[in-house]
Amino acid sequence: MRSNVSLLAISGHSGQGLEFSRKTSDITVMAQADPHMHVHANRPCSPQDVDDFLEQAEALAVRKGQRLTKIRRKVLRLLLESQEPSKAYDLLANLDGEGSAKPPTVYRALDFLQEVGLAHKIESLNAYVACGHASHKHSAVFLICDECGGAEELHAISTTDALKAETEAAGFHMRHAVIEVRGVCRACAG
Q: Where do the domains of the chain lie, and which CATH numbers do they carry?
């Protein structure tokens, strides 16, 4: 049985807290997707061609005056190929053939990937996912399935804009935000 899913965007109401106002289009697309489709970590943001994306990531790093080193590239590849959010020690275990990689090396690579917009950290899981749209900076909104462990990122622009407006109204300058929504995905619910 297919259920209709909708998510309301959060908007601010001058000093009166948050109010739900209108539907976002990204959740509508997700609700209409095939419920039997295999979910990869952060599927909506995962590029279709990993090798092509790695080349784009390298070019992005160069444009930012950085380098996508061998370790950074391998960590990004592992994130891109992962079917669920990855923990740093799992990535370390899969860095076979990469010399004497130690935990600080993996954490530095993950920090770099987050800094340039190629990865996000899901705080509640202490795990990471690749982000395939590094061309713009954005806050992450994740739907995390308690059944299968999958995580999907929403492009909830209006939600992020509302959060930014609320934090600015409170005199707080937001650098970034990660919103995590826990529940059951369409594949597990079906």
A: 8-41+135-189 (3.30.1490.190), 48-119 (1.10.10.10)
Secondary structure E strands in the chain:
8-12, 18-23, 119-122, 127-130, 140-145, 151-154, 178-183
User: Between 70-81 and 103-115, two packed helices, what is the crossing angle to 10 degrees?
Assistant: 80
- CA torsion, ordered 114, 120, 126, 128, to nearest 10 deg: -90
The model's pLDDT over 92-144, given as tens digits with 9 standing for 90+, comes to: 999 876 666 788 999 999 999 999 889 999 999 999 999 877 666 677 889 99
Q: Are 131 and 110 in contact (CB under 8 A)?
A: no
- Compute CA distances 80 → 9, 60, 128, 137, whole Å: 28, 16, 10, 19
Q: How far apart are CA 143 and CA 181, in angstroms?
A: 5
- 31 pLDDT above the threshold of 60: no
Strand 8-12 with 18-23, pairing:
antiparallel
